[in-house]
Design brief:
The chain is 48% helix and 16% strand. By secondary structure, the chain is of the alpha+beta class. The chain has one domain (6-133). Strands 1-2-3-4 form a four-stranded antiparallel beta sheet. Strand 2 and strand 3 form a beta hairpin.
């Protein structure tokens, strides 16, 4: 037994960090295989896969998506206020879609999101593989 009980937590934190980094690399590699990358449903300009992570969702965090670069982002949709001020009536021109990189996720939360995202990417890759064989 370690002299300081906090060493257990430190070792667990280090293990989480290593796993999060490994999942990040796997996710980037797998996302790179999705060519073309799917567009986000209902979005005009954004490519992404919605990622749900039960248990780590937060009311402060909106829709989480996996982007083509293999990173996790919050998708923020809204209206372009400048276009509204210019009296533009084209809804596409007024649409604003932004991807805000999730950089503040605790490694524990990142692991849950990344695993969920990786599962979805693998499903899409398997579907495409089956379509190619059929």
């Amino acid at each position: 037994m370690p002299e300081d009980p906090l060493e257990y937590k430190a070792e667990a934190d280090a293990a989480l960090d290593r796993l999060a980094q490994r999942l990040r690399r796997l996710l980037q590699e797998a996302a790179g295989e999705l060519d073309p990358f799917p567009p986000f449903p209902g979005a005009f300009f954004t490519y992404g896969i919605e990622v749900e992570a039960p248990g780590v969702d937060s009311p402060e965090r909106g829709c989480v998506v996996l982007a083509p670069d293999g990173e996790l982002y919050e998708l923020v949709m809204g209206q372009d206020v400048a276009a509204l001020a210019l009296d533009q009536t084209d809804p596409v021109a007024m649409r604003e879609e932004k991807l805000k990189k999730l950089e503040d996720l605790h490694p524990r939360d990142y692991i849950v999101y990344a695993y969920s995202a990786l599962t979805k990417v693998v499903e899409l890759l398997l579907e495409r593989q089956a379509e190619g064989e059929g």
